[in-house]
Amino acid sequence: MEREVKTPESIHPAQWWHTLPAESGKAERIQCDLCPRDCKLHAGQRGACFVRQNLGGHMVLTTYGRSSGFCIDPIEKKPLNHFYPGSSVLSFGTAGCNLACKFCQNWDISKSKDMDRLMDAASPDGIAAAAAAYGAESVAFTYNDPVVFAEYAIDTALACRKQGVKTVAVTAGYIHPEPAKVFYAAMDAANVDLKGFTDDFYVKLCGGHLRPVLDTLVYIHHETSCWLEITTLLIPGQNDSTAEIKALSDWVRRELGPDVPLHFTAFHPDWKMDDLPSTPASTLSHARRIALDAGLHYVYTGNVHDSEGGTTFCPACHAALIERDWHTIRHYDLPNDGRCPHCRTVIAGHFGRFGKPFGARRIPVRLARR
Questions:
Q1: Which of 25, 122, 256, 299 could form a disulfide with 367 if both were Cys (CB 3.0 to 4.6 A apart)?
Q2: Which pLDDT score is estimated for 81?
Q3: Per-residue pLDDT band at 114 (split at 50, 70, 90)
């Protein structure tokens, strides 16, 4: 549903909501239909994400055109290992999130209720033009979940498409099916955080549920042209058991197939879970072996120095095709056609001309509003 609302510049009419039937003696409310939280809001109230608000009986997005900052990053940082490796990506986020992960590693942005953190203002056209000017292959919606600023992300993705710039969503995939159709139709790639593989984990540590995320993963892979990779942050004692990792890997193999890359990344103490130890590298290597044994072709470790866990191997002849150390590509041996040069097996993903890799740099940039 979309209706005209006269509002300040950063306030933008939102989609995916409806007015609830009036109850006797109670003020009218509206319901947000963007994500499974289904927030029901009285006038002036904000949803759990804090950025979607009932303003005068209409749903609005309060962070449209405003960002917590822009940086040029390597695409491997998203992490995406099969989407134009070595390329640079213009990354940005806004504020707010529709989950409540106690281990959030960007909590100062995702949990922020201080809109003054949104220092950089940029229009969708301005972001697309900046990405092209900086030579970035793509724009990434990241730092906080782009689902909560879906209208801004979609408009930016469409503007990027006109400029020949690709777009990437780094998201938890917590979204209803109808908005998911519009959102992922605009995206060229997505890395979805599959935070654990039990509903108990999602309820207790994320404030959500597992099933909607699994449904999103199946939808992206089978119903869209959006390239998909998955990341699971392994937290000691919470979601790193052999049984849970095997169940997760078996599900990916069965429901998505062997060619969807899976990243196991290391947790570090943060936010409300600063009393736990960091994830040992051995846990990541163990998880990777379980997933490979389950039949997955491309399994990676992240947030650690692990040459083997960062390398893309041919699933047929096992040749090392792209050797990485964290976000740095050390060796690249994959032709533009994406076929193994040794046995001609097609490597799943999006590949192109490979020149000098961007490397592990992080370059903050400021955008002039357009």
A1: 122
A2: 98
A3: low
User: Cis omega before residue 146 (within 30°)?
Assistant: no
Residues with Cβ within 8 Å of 203's Cβ and at least 6 positions away in sequence, in order, are 209
Return all residues near 227 (Cβ < 8 A) that are at least 6 apart: 80, 82, 83, 188, 189, 190, 349, 350
Start-to-end Cα distance in the chain? 27
Alpha-carbon gap, residue 320 to 357, rounded angstroms: 17
Where in the chain are all domains bearing CATH 3.20.20.70?
Answer: 67-365
- Find where tokens 């303003």 sit: 55
Residue 283 CB coordination number (10 Å): 20
Under a CB-based contact definition with an 8 Å cutoff, are residues 312 and 350 in contact?
no
Specify the residue for token string 């960062």: 310
Which amino acid is it at 307? S
Strand order across the 262-266 sheet: 299-302, 262-266, 227-234, 189-193, 166-171, 138-141, 88-93, 69-74, 363-365
Q: What is the pTM of this model?
A: 0.94
The answer to whether residues 287 and 250 touch, using CB atoms and an 8 Å cutoff, is no
Asked if 74 and 49 touch (Cβ cutoff 8 Å), the reply is: no
Burial class (CB in 10 A: 0-12, 13-18, 19+), 123: middle
As its CATH architecture, domain 67-365 has Alpha-Beta Barrel (3.20)
Q: How far apart are CA 253 and CA 198, in angstroms?
A: 17
**Contact (CB, 8 A) for 160 and 139:** yes
Model pLDDT for residues 167-217, shown as the tens digit of each residue: 999 999 999 999 999 999 999 999 999 999 999 999 999 999 999 999 999
